[in-house]
Design goal:
seven-stranded parallel beta sheet; 314 residues; oxidoreductase activity; globular; Rossmann fold; two-stranded parallel sheet
Length: 314
């Protein structure tokens, strides 16, 4: 390799400062993807429901924008907190005026609300193709301070919401709409779980239990819906910078240790909502037509190993 070649192999590990700067640069590139990429058609003609879209820095919002970028026909977006729904709708419509957007303020764990939104999609569009059940909450209290009420509320929001998405979403997806080209029963249900639902060490007891249940729902539902071409998968994010994890990130940065956030995974960095949205897009699209009943970790490789000291081997 010539001295002036732009392709440089680094022979030594970067310093912490160099790695932190690299992380910031890489994340900026990831977050500017939509601005720098042409419109796609991976979801052309698809009718989608996404819950948990209210956070300005969340996975739901990032996914709604990406789904619109990829040509979704109609986005039904839901959140329990209504204040950011108008902004998301206007943001989508300004950038993607061809995409229909319907906002719903409702509890994603409310049986009647989820049944109603699925019914609305069928009545207005004649079909439902994608249901991304992303709504969730996080309790940060330890075992002794977690009451039965808190435990059950975490399961209600995080787990029951996914059950309802599967129950009502799958029923709607089995309906055909020949006028729009949907001649066969099919669809994709995507559940937001967590690596906390795969192994301990990534969340509180109630949160981890709720996400383990979500992972189980994905696997069990795949067999409950066999031969329908309705697929169910869960995404298991690692440490992602969202409003839910804001305290972790703010605390580390205030201590001057922001460069260490995410250092335990092989990539040595945290993730951002857009990276989870890309996995949701893959699972939503027909490109993942043979992916079913899976719990897919998107965590920089954290869950690939038993705990080890960096640089040391057992």
């Amino acid at each position: 390799m010539s001295k002036g070649s732009p392709y440089v192999l680094t022979g030594s590990k970067p310093t912490p400062e160099e790695h932190h700067q690299r992380t910031l640069t890489r994340i900026e590139q990831i977050q500017s993807h939509l601005k720098n990429s042409p419109r796609g058609q991976r979801l052309k003609g698809k009718v989608c429901i996404i819950t948990g879209v209210g956070s300005l820095h969340g996975i739901g919002r990032a996914s709604a924008l990406l789904f619109a970028h990829e040509g979704a026909q109609h986005l039904y977006i839901m959140d329990f907190a209504p204040q950011n729904l108008p902004d998301l709708k206007s943001t989508i419509q300004q950038s993607y005026p061809d995409v229909k957007v319907t906002t719903i303020q409702a509890d994603a764990a409310d049986d009647a609300a989820i049944a109603a939104i699925c019914k609305q999609a069928i009545e207005e569009e004649g079909q439902l193709d994608i249901f991304f059940a992303n709504a969730g909450i996080l309790n940060t209290k330890g075992l002794r301070d977690t009451t039965s009420e808190v435990f059950l509320e975490t399961l209600r929001v995080n787990t029951l919401s996914c059950f309802l998405a599967v129950k009502y979403g799958s029923e709607a997806m089995m309906r055909v709409n020949p006028s729009n080209g949907k001649t066969l029963s099919k669809g994709s249900i995507i559940l937001t779980a967590s690596i906390a639902g795969l192994r301990s060490g990534a969340g509180t007891i109630d949160y981890s239990a709720s996400k383990a249940a979500v992972n189980s729902i994905a696997k069990t539902s795949a067999y409950q819906l066999q031969k329908t071409d309705v697929r169910v998968n869960s995404i298991c994010p690692g440490l992602i910078e969202t409003n839910m994890t804001k305290n972790v990130f703010d605390g580390a940065r205030q201590r001057g240790s922001g460069g260490k956030i995410g250092q335990l995974n092989p990539m040595g960095r945290y993730g951002v909502a857009q990276e989870i949205a890309q996995m949701a897009l893959f699972l939503a699209s027909d490109e993942s037509s043979y992916v079913n009943g899976q719990n897919i970790a998107v965590d920089g490789g954290l869950s690939a190993s038993h705990p080890v000291m960096p640089g040391h081997w057992a």
